Amino acid sequence: TSVMMLPIGMAIITQLKDNPDTLEDENQIFGKALMLAIAYSASIGGIATLIGTPPNLVFAAMVQELYGIEITFYQWIIFGLPISVVMLALCWKYLTSIAFSFRQKSFPGGKEEISRQLRSLGQVTYEEKMVLGVFLLTALSWIGRSFLNRFIPALDDTIIA
Question: Do 48 and 98 fall into the same domain?
């Protein structure tokens, strides 16, 4: 996740740096906060789902092996998602209020640039819709696996993946 987001973050920082209306130090401060936010949010977001990070899967496998208790995708989300949401909010508050202080509350031309970039993407393609469909089917199958096991007893996370 971090590796995918870093180039996007760098592009945002570069565009802000090239904007003459951006206060001089703000770009540097924002850049540091954004890079830390990407790293922190990847770690925090990994807690939300069973497949978020490898240690989650190792933990679930060890609980299954040692205690015979299966932790389902749904059970993990019920536990992990609220923790992730709270931790992300705390991280955002820390980065924007304590670690870094911003004098410039918005970046000139930022909304217009985002709108321009969104327009340049064009319409959603058939292939993109298919990928979304496969993603949703996989996610819903993982979440609803305990329900689906009533109809397909041999179904497990490996088959869904």
Answer: yes
Residue type, 10: M
Model confidence pLDDT, tens digit, residues 6-63: 998 898 888 877 777 777 778 888 889 999 999 999 999 999 999 999 999 999 999 9
Contact 47, 84 (CB under 8 A): yes
- Measured in Å, how far apart are the chain's first and last C-alpha atoms? 18
Q: Which amino acid is at 140?
A: L
- pTM beyond 0.90: the answer is no
**Domain count of the chain?**
2
As a whole number of angstroms, the distance between CA 64 and CA 158 comes to 15
Question: Are 79 and 35 within one domain?
Answer: yes
CA–CA dist 70, 161 (Å, integer): 17
Q: Are residues 96 and 134 in the same domain?
A: no
Same domain, 69 and 96: yes
